[in-house]
Design the sequence.
């Protein structure tokens, strides 16, 4: 092997966010040799909640209880939406495959196939989501049944106020009672970060004293809600242990990012890749991509090291402005790696609306890569740039994931479709049907 | 209906209204200051923060130039805590009018303003950010001034001495009766009710809104409005104030303050005072002009823009160049309108606010038959520590020095901690001001850094709930309003890094928290089985 040469593969995925990770998992399941380039920086930003579709049309004043009904409507109203390129069964298969994979990683997400769940957020608002980590689930049930709940915050955990949550949520969940406790790790008054609290929870002494305080405060509460701090890994042990000690169901509320349910998701994914013996992930940033007849040449830089990857097909899952998948100067929005065309409003003054919370959402949120029904980016003339070049995730044009509450679902469904396309296109490699 | 009585009613809590309240208070005259929003809601919270040396006006308004110079020396002595004595430069770049450059030093000297000529190379050594095309430079005694600390401390002392401040109270009616305004009606927008005030004397210090207020009393005051837009950089670009050495135009002043620099302005005549926000094209124009003096501005990161309105009192229509109208102030006694107890003070500038306040207070005292003289020309402005958190860089300096393990940062960009917020919060409570999100943000640096409030306003809100300063779902309304307010300023500067910030806000506020939908109707689908 030449120095700096990393190897070749059937599929190279650029970007290790949710879309890139899902694409890698699906590609491996298909028996394709796969490399994911990039760190999963942004995915630890996410909340760990799996949204499928929570609002349609984006400016409706109601959230959607039935995401599938919403998807049908969306297919009719928004033919340019990435979801509109997929049949219901495709989306169902993608979501099922992804949730099964997570369960396999030790993160058994819970959901109700036909209905969105209502989840309590760290601001005290409610929002619809499709699937949640097991530690969040008891809160969904308790809210649905209007159970008496204690919400416990901790001194020093700045952005989590139990009083705020109880006050704001009171209209829809009146029987919440707030309390603010000292976190029992022997450092009263100190600033708290969820990650450090999660490390402390592993200590039996901390759990014992925490349980004692919670039991005392709980009084007649039937369930107890906590900021998500019960362990760093996708390991239900500490949560189960605490429930047993408190004698009530306990649920976690995802904190602001980086939040532990998001971090656990990342840990579980990388851990699984490591255990399966495939060193799939290559850290670093892809600096350059060249398309040469048969192959994609990727140049990857990590620190001072520069390495090259040869790939027979490519998935671009580099996200939007936060992840660097799209960039903008004062005039134009670009896709920096391959200079793929980005549909966008004509002028910067049309990127954003005068009001931030305008129900219609900002036009810039819908800019991105235009793809065909096989999720292949199109060139300026409307033809696929390359038969084995696909795109997935939030970099796609035509959606507004934050307003439509569809971030994770869109990432997973588009990754599924992109992998299907490449598996079909890769010559000499018959796609293996999935079990 | 509530009726309040006061010897003097002051309308408007900008620099001028606050200045009048303090001036009167020091003479032992009580007043009631009423403000339709919060302090500095008008031009006093949306200006360049330049304490003028006067040099900008030497070519067209020698009187104002001289007045600015003398007053700036006095303010530097009496309220140094509000002023950063940066010094300033006037620079011309290749292509600028060399005739103007040649006349400039003499014009300054005629107005008594000391200027020192510098060789371009020397100027660039002092300020490495200056353009390599600099052809002339002069050193002048400009400085920057913090209008927030200024107004907070003026009102703080006035209230200490017996004045009262009513925020979110708009004057909606004045009934002139037999040659005087006997009663004034306020609308309390928080409590949504009206309040009546009976005052012996009334001061209309409503800035650009002064014409509207005067009209309520049936007094005519022809006014024109000139909107100016400014942009704030992410980091400080120069040590000194940098002025373009040419007749006043767009994007020709760069004022440093603490950790940032402010570039401005534009001057556009507008008809509607409801339309005061910065636009994308104004921002682009200022940046293009400014980068001719300081080229790195073309690539700089800007964290927000804002706009204010200069009231121009001038009965005659001009040719559209608002900068030709005098920036001097107008004090009217409305005797000609047949009203004996109303004074309007408007126009002018921040740099001369104290003079404006003194002359107004003189007139009020004359009418009240009070002989006590103004003391603001000799008495230093007190500097209680609780009133100083609006200063850029102060929180971080103190935070780093104290580094108390039991104090936590609520705003990481500007290093504002819980204890600092609590100090302001307690002070507000003792001053009878409701400590909602906006009130605290105006009085600290929360939300003024790179993240523009995305994280810190959530933390501040959580803290306010913890301190029982908010209850029910009201906090979310405060949060939405606060963020909408910051948004007006962010929108024009969203490219590169700030665009990613905006996307993070979108992900947090809408993606994660669903704050864009209000009320219970959003969840109706879950009610029906
Ligand atoms: C604050 C926040 C809260 C969220 N909350 C929710 C939620 O409640 N529910 C939900 O469903 N979704 C949520 N999401 C959204 C969800 O995380 C995204 O929809 C999901 O991550 C899919 O994004 P993506 O993979 O397309 O892009 P990203 O997550 O942005 O990932 C793209 C990755 O590509 C990398 N990259 C870019 N360029 C290169 C390059 N040249 N070389 C190598 N790597 C590169 C980036 O560093 C990044 O890690 C949230 C997101 C954020 C930011
Ligand atoms: C873009 C721009 C840049 C500037 N730069 C500088 C500079 O660098 N240096 C300098 O010295 N000067 C500068 N100025 C001028 C300076 O800002 C103003 O002269 C000064 O702030 C005016 O203060 P004020 O109190 O008179 O008016 P304002 O600050 O406008 O105060 C008027 C107040 O009255 C309130 N009000 C209005 N109507 C009512 C009502 N009906 N009831 C109750 N309250 C009411 C308003 O809400 C407002 O708070 C600048 C001005 C602008 C617009």
Sequence:
């Amino acid at each position: 092997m030449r120095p700096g040469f990393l190897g070749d593969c059937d599929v190279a995925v650029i970007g290790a966010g949710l879309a890139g990770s899902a694409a890698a998992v699906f590609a491996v399941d298909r028996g394709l040799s796969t490399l994911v380039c990039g760190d999963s920086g942004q995915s630890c930003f996410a909340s760990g909640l799996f949204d499928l579709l929570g609002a349609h049309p984006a400016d409706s004043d109601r959230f959607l209880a039935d995401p599938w009904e919403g998807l049908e409507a969306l297919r009719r109203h928004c033919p340019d939406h990435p979801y509109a390129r997929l049949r219901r069964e495709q989306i169902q298969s993608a979501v099922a495959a992804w949730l099964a994979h997570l369960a396999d990683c030790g993160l058994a997400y819970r959901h109700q196939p036909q209905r969105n769940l209502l989840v309590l957020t760290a601001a005290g608002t409610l929002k619809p989501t499709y699937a949640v980590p097991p530690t969040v689930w008891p809160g969904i049930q308790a809210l649905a049944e209007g159970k008496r709940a204690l919400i416990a915050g901790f001194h020093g955990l700045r952005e989590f106020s139990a009083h705020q949550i109880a006050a704001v949520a009171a209209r829809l969940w009146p029987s919440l009672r707030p309390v603010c406790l000292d976190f029992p790790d022997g450092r009263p008054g100190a600033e708290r970060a969820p990650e450090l609290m999660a490390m402390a929870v592993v200590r039996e002494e901390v759990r014992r004293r925490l349980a004692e305080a919670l039991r005392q405060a709980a009084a007649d509460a039937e369930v107890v809600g906590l900021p998500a701090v019960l362990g760093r890994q996708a390991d239900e042990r500490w949560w189960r242990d605490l429930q047993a000690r408190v004698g009530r169901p306990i649920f976690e509320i995802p904190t602001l990012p980086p939040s532990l349910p998001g971090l656990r998701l990342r840990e579980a994914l990388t851990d699984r890749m490591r255990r399966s013996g495939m060193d799939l992930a290559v850290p670093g940033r892809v600096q350059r991509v060249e398309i040469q007849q048969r192959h994609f040449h990727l140049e990857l830089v990590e620190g001072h090291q520069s390495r090259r990857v040869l790939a027979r097909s490519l998935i671009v899952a580099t996200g939007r402005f936060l992840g660097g998948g799209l960039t903008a100067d004062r005039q134009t929005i670009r896709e920096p790696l391959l200079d793929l065309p980005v549909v966008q409003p004509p002028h910067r003054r049309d990127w954003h609306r005068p009001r931030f919370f305008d129900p219609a959402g900002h036009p810039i949120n819908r800019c991105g890569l235009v793809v065909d029904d096989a999720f292949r980016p199109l060139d300026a003339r409307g033809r696929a740039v390359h038969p084995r070049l696909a795109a997935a995730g939030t970099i796609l044009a035509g959606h507004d994931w934050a307003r439509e509450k569809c971030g994770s679902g869109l990432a997973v469904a588009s990754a599924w479709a992109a992998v299907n396309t490449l598996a079909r296109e890769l010559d000499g490699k018959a796609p293996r049907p999935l079990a | 209906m509530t009726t309040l009585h006061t010897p003097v009613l002051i309308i408007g809590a900008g620099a001028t209204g606050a200045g009048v309240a303090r001036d009167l208070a020091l003479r032992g005259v009580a007043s009631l200051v009423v403000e339709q929003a919060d302090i500095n809601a008008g031009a006093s919270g949306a200006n360049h923060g330049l304490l003028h040396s006067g040099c900008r006006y030497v070519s067209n308004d020698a009187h104002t130039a001289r007045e600015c110079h003398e007053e700036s020396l006095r303010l530097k002595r009496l309220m140094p805590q509000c002023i950063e004595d940066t010094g300033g430069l006037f620079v011309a770049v290749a292509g600028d009018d060399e005739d103007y450059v040649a006349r400039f030093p003499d014009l300054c000297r005629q107005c008594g303003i000391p200027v020192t000529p510098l060789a371009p190379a020397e100027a660039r050594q002092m300020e490495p950010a200056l353009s390599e095309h600099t052809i002339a430079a002069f050193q002048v005694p400009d400085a920057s001034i913090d209008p927030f600390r200024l107004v907070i401390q003026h009102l703080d002392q006035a209230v200490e001495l017996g004045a009262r401040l009513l925020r979110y109270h708009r004057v909606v009616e004045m009934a002139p009766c037999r040659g005087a305004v006997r009663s004034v009606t306020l609308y309390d927008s928080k409590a949504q009710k009206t309040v009546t005030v009976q005052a012996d004397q009334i001061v209309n210090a409503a800035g650009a809104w002064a014409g509207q207020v005067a009209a309520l009393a049936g007094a005519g005051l022809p006014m024109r409005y000139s909107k100016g837009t400014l942009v704030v950089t992410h980091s400080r670009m120069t040590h000194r104030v940098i002025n373009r050495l040419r007749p006043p135009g767009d994007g020709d002043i760069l004022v440093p303050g603490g950790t940032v620099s402010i570039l401005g302005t534009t001057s556009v005549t507008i008809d509607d005072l409801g339309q005061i926000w910065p636009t994308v094209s104004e921002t682009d124009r200022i940046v293009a002009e400014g980068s001719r003096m300081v080229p790195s501005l073309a690539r700089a990161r800007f964290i927000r823009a804002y706009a204010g309105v200069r009231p121009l009192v001038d009965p005659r229509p001009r040719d559209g160049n608002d900068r030709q109208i005098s920036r001097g102030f107008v004090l009217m006694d409305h005797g000609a309108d047949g009203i004996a107890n109303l004074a309007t003070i408007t126009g002018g500038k921040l740099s001369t606010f104290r003079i404006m306040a003194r002359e107004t207070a003189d007139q009020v005292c004359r009418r009240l038959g009070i002989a006590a003289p103004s003391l603001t020309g000799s008495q230093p402005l007190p500097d209680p520590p609780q009133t100083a958190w609006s200063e850029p860089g102060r929180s971080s300096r103190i935070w780093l020095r104290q580094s108390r393990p039991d104090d936590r940062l609520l705003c990481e960009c500007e290093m504002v901690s819980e204890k600092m917020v609590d100090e302001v919060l307690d002070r507000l409570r003792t001053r009878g001001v409701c400590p909602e999100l906006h009130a605290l943000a105006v009085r600290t640096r929360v939300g003024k850094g790179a993240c523009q409030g995305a994280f810190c306003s959530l933390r501040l809100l959580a803290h306010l709930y913890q301190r029982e300063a908010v209850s029910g779902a009201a906090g979310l309304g405060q949060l939405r309003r606060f963020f909408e307010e910051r948004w007006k300023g962010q929108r024009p500067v969203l490219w590169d890094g700030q665009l990613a910030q905006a996307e993070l806000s979108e992900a947090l506020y809408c993606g994660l928290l669903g704050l864009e939908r209000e009320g219970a109707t959003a969840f109706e689908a879950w009610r029906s089985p």
Remarks:
- Residues B 11-17, 34-37, 41-44, 46-50, 52, 170-171, 205-209, 213, 228, 230, 265, 308-310, 346, 348-351 surround flavin-adenine dinucleotide (ligand 2) (CB under 6 Å).
- The first strand of chain B starts at residue 2 and ends at 11.
- The radius of gyration of chain B is 23 Å.
- Chain B has three domains: 2-43+147-222+326-368, 84-142+224-313, 385-522.
